[in-house]
TrEMBL record:
Region feature Disordered, mapped onto this chain: 1-29
Bilayer-crossing regions: none
Biased composition (Polar residues): 15-27
Species of provenance: Arabidopsis thaliana
GO biological process: methylation
Signal peptide: none
SUPFAM superfamilies with a match to the protein in the record: S-adenosyl-L-methionine-dependent methyltransferases
PANTHER family listed in its UniProt record: S-ADENOSYL-L-METHIONINE:CARBOXYL METHYLTRANSFERASE FAMILY PROTEIN (PTHR31009)
Molecular function GO labels: metal ion binding; methyltransferase activity
InterPro entries (alphabetical): MeTrfase_7, MeTrfase_capping, SAM-dependent_MTases_sf
Protein name: S-adenosyl-L-methionine-dependent methyltransferases superfamily protein
Record key words, sorted: Magnesium, Metal-binding, Methyltransferase, S-adenosyl-L-methionine, Transferase
Length: 368
């Protein structure tokens, strides 16, 4: 299994150019993130230096869109209360394989978007490593942000030998497969919270956004639209002799989309953080930008040619997320053909998929 890093660079299939959906959901969560930042500052009585971490920053501009809002909220809060501006330390974290270079090239434009000229007060650094381990000194963080990361597990769960023709859970499948995924998520998310509890100052805050599921049934078809399309596309390549059946049978995604009760259960059982706010944010499975407008899957006048563009946009987004994992396991030669198959299957199922929302959770936490 390859490392869970998004596709780097700024090419057609890069994460930097195929993360509009993530940007949209992050934008929806923005008011609550800003509220959390403001409350943290007041509670901590306007510290002279504030350390902010974005965990799982990936590559591209999304991390700086979040950081600029956080930094500007800090500036505004201090100004409104007649306080001298603090020094702000912005730490961007992802796995060592992440394309940090594409991200760091955007630092000058990040500084330009900040209110006033705070360039001398705002510092940006990279912190490579898994957020399932310790990353920062004890009690050094004031605010932690993480978006679209915590549904990725530290490893493929054990006990998936029976999951031979799917890359993730799929109905029907034995309940023990769900248990394997749920137990791995429980273990990983608990570890994430434990590590952050050691690194975060008392009354420090965390704002987390992750993919979830609405239904309590983890095997509902609602839970794995994208991944079933990937599984079916790989099965096509197996039947054509392009992919070995044994290679498909040994490939599973280190991914889990929890329901609300599961997220809350892990937070409450770990015990270091208090839930201040928990919201569900719905997205769209299919959408794409054309000029200055956005065509979404609930637009009734989407004709066949634009339908293809909508599906291709979704295929590119999925590819930008899992291509490194696929290449590590199957090799690079199959990727174009695989996503041609993905587009075919998505077009075939378009009418059943188009009105299915994606489910995302926003969680605001405070360190006890």
């Amino acid at each position: 299994m390859g490392v869970v890093s998004m596709k780097g660079g700024d090419g057609e299939h890069s994460y930097a150019n195929n993360s509009e959906a993530q940007k949209s959901i992050t934008s929806d969560a923005k008011p609550e993130v800003m509220k959390s930042v403001n409350e943290m500052i007041v509670k901590m009585d306007f510290p002279g230096c504030i350390k902010v971490a974005d965990l799982g920053c990936s590559s591209g501009e999304n991390t700086f869109l979040v950081m600029s809002e956080i930094v500007n909220t800090i500036i505004t809060t201090y100004q409104q209360n007649g306080q001298n501006l603090p020094e702000i330390d912005c730490c961007l974290n992802d796995l060592p394989e992440n394309d940090f270079n594409t991200t760091f090239k955007l630092i000058p434009s990040f500084h330009e978007k900040l209110k006033m000229n705070v360039k001398g007060n705002c510092y940006v650094s990279g912190c490579p490593g898994s957020f399932y381990t310790r990353l920062f000194p004890s009690k050094s963080l004031h605010f932690v942000h993480s978006s679209f990361c915590l549904h990725w597990l530290s490893k493929v769960p054990d006990g998936l030998e029976e999951n031979k023709k799917n890359v993730y859970l799929r109905s029907p499948c034995p309940p023990n497969l769900y248990e394997s995924y749920w137990n791995q998520f429980k273990k990983d998310f608990s570890m994430f919270l434990r590590m952050r509890a050691e690194e975060t100052m008392p009354s420090g805050r965390m704002a987390l956004t992750l993919v979830g599921r609405k239904t309590l049934d983890p095997l509902s078809k609602e839970c794995f639209k994208d991944w079933s399309l990937v599984s079916d596309s790989l099965l096509d390549l197996v039947s054509e002799g392009v992919v070995k059946e044994s290679d498909l049978e040994s490939f599973n995604l280190p991914y889990y989309s929890p329901d609300e009760s599961e997220v809350k259960e892990v937070i409450e059982n770990e015990g270091s953080f208090e839930i201040k706010n928990f919201e569900t944010i719905f997205g769209l499975l299919f959408s794409y930008k054309t000029g200055h407008s956005e065509v979404k899957d609930d637009d009734d006048d989407v004709d066949h040619s634009r339908r293809f563009e909508v599906v291709k946009t979704r295929a590119n987004m999925t590819r930008s997320i899992i291509e490194p994992m696929l290449v590590a396991h199957f090799g690079e030669a199959i990727i174009d053909r695989l996503f041609d198959k993905y587009i075919y299957h998505a077009c075939q199922r378009y009418d059943t998929l188009r009105n299915k929302p994606t489910v995302n959770f926003f969680v605001s936490l405070t360190r006890k």
